[in-house]
């Protein structure tokens, strides 16, 4: 079961975060999940972000219908840019699901997107060792009042989605 957590100080997202930015972190145990502990971090991120959470997909469709007339990027816009090399070979500039890769290391991948209202980054961080966990941390840099309003409107959904995709990922077989 996932829980609210804090950003790990050695996360590459710590360098991106600035005072005034929004930040949250959720984590889930990876005990007994050797497949997830040993998977390439890009494969793990894809497994988390491609989880089959039906209500989440319905929310994304509703979001897209609302934001398209406002000029925000939709999931369809971003999925058009998704093609590329096999997951394990993707580098900064390539995509995992509809998120652009900004940085990648053995146990962390920094994904995100920049838009006119806000820039956001998502870190998927895997902690190895005695108490292995996966952390999903989101940081948003809001550029204007619309960025603040948008984040306030999606926040209840964001929190439910973040915890649900982590729970789904650790409960399902790696695809």
Give a quick summary of the entry.
The protein has 175 residues and is of the alpha+beta class.
Radius of gyration: 15 Å
Termini, distance in Å?
20 Å
Describe the largest sheet: 7 strands, antiparallel
From the coordinates shown, what is the CATH architecture?
A: 2-Layer Sandwich
CATH topology: Alpha-D-Glucose-1,6-Bisphosphate, Chain A, domain 4
Uncertain segments are none
Strand arrangement in the largest pleated sheet? 1-2-7-6-5-4-3
Look at the structure and give the mean pLDDT: 88
The coarse silhouette is globular
Helix segment tally:
6
Number of strands: 7
**What top-tier CATH class fits best?**
Alpha Beta
Structure characteristics:
single chain, 175 residues, alpha+beta, Alpha-D-Glucose-1,6-Bisphosphate, Chain A, domain 4, seven-stranded antiparallel beta sheet, 6 helices, 37% helix, 26% strand
